Amino acid sequence: MREIVFRQRERPVYARLDPSAFACSTLAGQLADLWVDYHRKNSLKTVHAYPTAIRSFATFLDVHLPSQGIDAAHARLEDESIDLPAMIHAWGQNLLTQYPEHSRRPWGLERALLALLNHGSERELAVSERVRRRVAAPPGVRKASGQVLDEFSNSERAVMRRTARDDVRALEGRLARGRELLAAGRDPRRHGWLELPNLIWAARHGLVDSGALSDNLLSRNWSAEVREFAESSGIWPGIGLMGCLYRMLFPREIDLHPFRVLLLLAMTDCTSEELHSLQVPDLEFSTEGVRIVQTKQRAQRIRADFHMAEPLDAMPEESGDKTYAGQGAWDVPGLLRRLVGVNVLTREVFDGEPWVFTAVESRQRVRMEAALAAFQDPGRRFTHWLEGHSGPERPFPQGVSRPHDIRRLRKTAKTTRVVALGGTLTDLAGDDHNVRVFQQHYAHGTTAHVLAGAAMNRAQSKVFAKITGTPTLVRPEDQTHLGDPEVAAALGVTPQQGIDLRDGELDMGVSNCKDPHNSPHSVPGKLCHVAPAMCMICDNAVVFVSQLPQQLLLFDHIQRMRDVLPPKSWHSVWGRQEATLKQIFAECADHVAAARRTIEEQALTLNLPLGMRTEYDR
């Protein structure tokens, strides 16, 4: 049996591997020896990938080697009769069938096995040259991109926050009731084990374990108070009663999830890893707020951050906890004060590291101990907290979208922040990410897509609003009366503008313009720079029948552009103008023939600015 013991977050972690469990026990033992040596030589912080890779590879060889006519019991690293590179390749292909499409597990397991074999080749073990060349190469299994996590919906975020606040109030109320019972309790060794306050007193002083309860408190001898307490708690005698007694004084792991939820939603620059590793000395409270020293193990980074406290009058009325010490009840300083407060008695009774997320749980179902909440054991994960509030007549009647990953809360908080700040890329990236990291890990989210779509819609709406106008057609009998106040008002211009239009002072080539210095396509106050290219889709345009020759020439020019421009480009530049000209020609059908004759008799040509031909015709 190979075993490695190391400490992770001040807790002992055991990793074991038994080579005798496999038919190829000799080869499994050699790989296990490499794992132990590799771990010690490199002072690894985690080991689970390596024994898992060895077990998976050995299990595969137990089946694959006999199919090749090879006795698995005789397999060794130095045996050249075994094509080990081919076995590794076949094992990698088999891993792909065992895991989902986006899983990185096959790549990670093959990479871990190759690392051990490469370590062995460096130690000059008797491995073949083919194996040495293979382990020096990268894994044969492609590293999957992974299925990126999406944030929780806004409705789920709001319900989570409300539910977490209710749970925090319930926890504080339960602990307050426990302290009342503790104050009334006495030593049960002298005053009896049948009174609930005495049992709470015994839990506080470390007298309660499974043996003490079974010796002194048989279920048939429970008092009415203890029996009512047990029934209201929904527990079983013995071990269940021990846990329920302790939960009246100390928080459990499931009780700390509401604090995680609220803090991750409030601390957009803090990861779940940094929050989980906080200790009480890392928090420095003041009247202005709290200074937090955050440690990120993966990045090997330590940084300090300050969170301002919100004034009491800024707290929502729903909090109902304004009497709590500190300025804010539900801001970051207030939440951390309350989290530290629920574990004051825990730090008095139990020895250990002053973790902020300290929980008291049963160990080996015999005694209660305080340790850093792992949030990984059955019944204590984030998904169990969510499922506990899912179902009919609960906060989440239809459940919560999966996966139930605590990292989704951070993405939810960051996207909520960007909504408030306006929705730019740099807002989402924030101060703790660069734009590239945001693009890889945050830009895929639903909220980011919705915001990007909304930005595109706004931009397109502005463009469409400018190009959805149509010119006004003025017939010859009305053209002479444009200076009259009534006619000018009906056209939407002043009498002076009407006179200028009538006299040709505002002629832009293919049409006239009500106000060339107030064009929807140009900056107000400057002369329109897109005339006459955009006149046929502009509200300012006024068309006279006398200008039909130029419009016919423009129409002919548009038709020639069909043979020059790609269809998509032609439609975006000239499509709407063609439709507008066809509408004008339909309304002036009795004048079109005369306009065509005028073009031929006078040899008219279309006058287009050189810049327009350069910009629109290629």
Describe the structure.
The protein has 618 residues and is mainly α. It folds into 4 domains: 2-135, no CATH class; 148-375, no CATH class; 422-466, no CATH class; 468-616, no CATH class. Helix content is 51%, strand content 9%. It has 27 helices and 10 strands. It has helices at 25-42, 49-67, 84-98, 105-122, 129-135, 154-184, 188-191, 196-204, 210-216, 224-233, 239-247, 253-266, 272-276, 332-342, 344-349, 382-388, 407-421, 425-429, 435-441, 446-467, 476-479, 485-491, 495-502, 548-561, 567-587, 589-602, 610-616; strands at residues 2-8, 11-17, 283-285, 289-296, 301-308, 358-363, 367-372, 472-474, 512-513, 541-544. The strands form 4 sheets. A 3-stranded antiparallel beta sheet has the order 3-4-5. The chain has a 3-stranded mixed beta sheet with strand order 8-10-9. β6 (358-363) and β7 form a beta hairpin. α2 crosses α3 and α24 packs antiparallel against α25 (567-587). The longest helix is centred in the N-terminal third of the chain and has 31 residues, at 154-184. It is elongated, with a radius of gyration of 39 Å. The protein starts with a strand and ends with a helix. The relative contact order is 0.05. The model is unreliable at 313-326 (pLDDT under 50).
Rg computed from alpha carbons, rounded to a whole number of angstroms: 39 Å
Main sheet makeup: 3 strands, antiparallel
Number of helices in the DSSP assignment: 27
Q: What's the arrangement of strands in the largest beta sheet?
A: 3-4-5
Q: How confident is the prediction overall: mean pLDDT?
A: 82
Estimated helix fraction: 40-55%
Please mark out the parts with pLDDT under 50 across 5 or more consecutive residues, or reply none.
313-326
**Strand residue percentage:** 5-15%
Count of discrete domains: 4
Using the alpha-carbon principal axes, give the shape. Answer: elongated
- DSSP strand count: 10
Distance between the termini: 77 Å
Helix-strand makeup class: mainly alpha
